[in-house]
Amino acid sequence: MTVIELPYPGRSATAAIPWHTRDEVHLQLAGVSKVYPGQQVAALQAVDLTIRRGEIFGIIGRSGAGKSTLIRTLNRLERPTGGRVVVDGTDIGTLDEDQLVAYRRRTGMIFQHFNLLSAKTVRQNIELPLRVAGVEAGERRQRVDRLLALVGLEARQDAYPAQLSGGQKQRVGIARALVHDPALLLCDEATSALDPETTRAILDLLRRINREMGITIVLITHEMEVIHDLCHRVAVIERGQIIEQGPVWAVYGNPQQPTTRSLLTPGHDRLPARFSEALSAAPETPESALLVRLRYHGDGVTPDLNRVLAAFDGRVTLVESALEPIQGRSVGHLLLTVTPAGGVPLPRSDEIADRVEVLGYVTAA
Ligand SMILES: Nc1ncnc2c1ncn2[C@@H]1O[C@H](COP(=O)(O)OP(=O)(O)OP(=O)(O)O)[C@@H](O)[C@H]1O
């Protein structure tokens, strides 16, 4: 793959300190509520959220939870009926028309269905916002050239949307969203219409844009892979309320709410059938084994098999391992049987895992 120079070298100097760790507030929602006209139930209820400059912040929730309404308050496509959306210290509810136009130019948005103009070519689609803004032709050409290179579509610049794949269409959408050098990129289910491989390529592009250009990205999705693979922090929304939020590794590793568990870690607690069917509360035979799950939240203890074996006195069989690195931390679990079950002294959690769970007894195979 060719390395492409980024369009705005002034901002792209690869910073030694990643933006998202600098703890600079970019966006703040304070008590944001939204009741649509004629509706009884609020689409958003007193949402408080702080998003840092340069982070990739994901909002996940089921259909109808309020994700679209929430993201649309960030560029005032939706006006809250209560509360404030503050961007770089300014309440965007107070912007006049001209200020709002200027703010929206610095806030790119991409959509699930791309929203391209079918009668215009790739180049013309990307160029259009610059024409509307009155940018002169030479400058327009230069900016579009750089963006075509960034998204890898130079060879398709004269194609029409109908001639493009879904992934290529979204690349056009991304290039168009970046024409005004935005500080903020909003992604509304940007990969939901794409196959898994194309999704990965688009997520790679978004990650690169975030990392190298320092753009804050806020995305909404119902796909846990998007949160897992791309985001630094996540908020879970249900019935218009944020029910849980935090760094992705922490929310994945130790989800607090049932909705979060089912959205982010489906199958998380499922035991292999041969164990769930054989599980009992007491040992049935002298050969019964204790079934133990060691959970790793990424909070501190790292999975160290030598320590695990030593802690259980060596009578351990590994049944299943579902551990993965998220943001440099180990998150997941190890499922073990320990024999003989009777009289096994359980090690302290903080010695071998973030949590030790005794699930019951199974008869050793
Ligand atoms: N323009 C509207 N007028 C009236 N009610 C609306 C409007 N837009 C959304 N709603 C309602 O507000 C609630 C939240 O909708 P929203 O579209 O924000 O949820 P969502 O999480 O984005 O859902 P989905 O994933 O299905 O798009 C829903 O009950 C929805 O029916």
UniProtKB/TrEMBL annotation:
Protein known as: Cell division ATP-binding protein FtsE
The processes (GO biological process) annotated in the record are: amino acid transport
Molecular function terms from GO: ATP binding; ATP hydrolysis activity
Going by the UniProt record, its keywords in alphabetical order are: Amino-acid transport, ATP-binding, Cell membrane, Membrane, Nucleotide-binding, Translocase, Transport
In this chain the ABC transporter domain maps to: 27-264
Query: Does the record carry Lyase as a key word?
Result: no
Topology in the lipid bilayer is annotated as: Peripheral membrane protein
User: What are the record's GO terms for cellular component?
Assistant: plasma membrane
The cross-references to SUPFAM superfamilies, in alphabetical order and at most eight, read:
ACT-like (SSF55021), P-loop containing nucleoside triphosphate hydrolases (SSF52540)
Superkingdom as given in the UniProt entry: Bacteria
Q: What does this protein do?
A: Part of the ABC transporter FtsEX involved in cellular division. Important for assembly or stability of the septal ring.
Native organism: Chimaeribacter californicus
Fetch the CDD domains from UniProt. Answer: ABC_MetN_methionine_transporter
Compartment list: Cell inner membrane
Gene3D superfamilies in the cross-refs: 3.30.70.260, P-loop containing nucleotide triphosphate hydrolases (3.40.50.300)
Regarding protein family, the annotation reads: Belongs to the ABC transporter superfamily.
InterPro entries (alphabetical): AAA+_ATPase, ABC_transporter-like_ATP-bd, ABC_transporter-like_CS, ACT-like_dom_sf, MetN_ABC, MetN_ABC_transporter-like, P-loop_NTPase
